[in-house]
Amino acid sequence: MMGARPMGERRKKSLMQDDGQSVQAPLCRIWGAGQYFGEEVARGGQALVIAADGGLEPALEHGDEPDLVVGDFDSLPAGSRKLRADIPRRVLPAEKDDTDLLAAVKVGWQRGCQRFLIYGGLGGRMDHTLANLNLIHLIAASGGRAELWGQGMLVTALGPGSLDFPAWDCPPRSMVSVLAADDQALGVVEQGLKYQTDGMTMTNQQVTGVSNEFLPGKPAHIALKQGIVFVTYPASAPEPIWSTSLVPKADLGSLETRPSRRLA
Q1: What total number of domains does the chain contain?
Q2: What is the largest CA-CA distance in the chain?
Q3: I want to staple 170 with a disulfide (CB 3.0 to 4.6 A). Which of 76, 164, 174, 195 is the partner?
């Protein structure tokens, strides 16, 4: 149609005020440079979209036009054809303490997002997977919500609060696991699942929370009173209602624009 803007341009304009300043978006989708499984879907509708370095390529491949590219560009060379001039970028030093994904989360938090859906953050390098589990722990402890997209499943971290899944026609052995991320997670409740708990104390030296199962046609409730737990569940499950009693922090710290002071 004559005069129509490209979809990416129209979507980005919807996230801007008349004065050109970013509107606070409830959801931030972040595309990382890690492993992808061919099952990723850009969920959540309108969002602030950030590519963390080499995550620009999968973001564009999935039709999720980034509002910003953040990173040290070690996995996305400055001359890459994917790095278009119309996509703003924030260049960070290579020898820094924060990962590119953490930098992207900090930017999203600064722009008003406290919910994050992170792609390319599981699988591949084990050190990056462990770092990204620490990252979603940080988000949960700061009063936010984050999910890492894996192979057929999502991983989230839950602080004092709850996840409530509506009833669904789940396939057999649709697994949900709950594991303590802290030394202790107090008052852990799991209801509407194959194995039930009511006020259990979990520690990060236990593995008893692995491989619980959704029950067909029954809602599921997961909650805790104190601490942080990791929860994994199928990507095909209906989106849970999430709540927390934590007041979101004002920020997650400043972006590292200089090399690490810990360099030898």
Answers
A1: 2
A2: 62
A3: 174
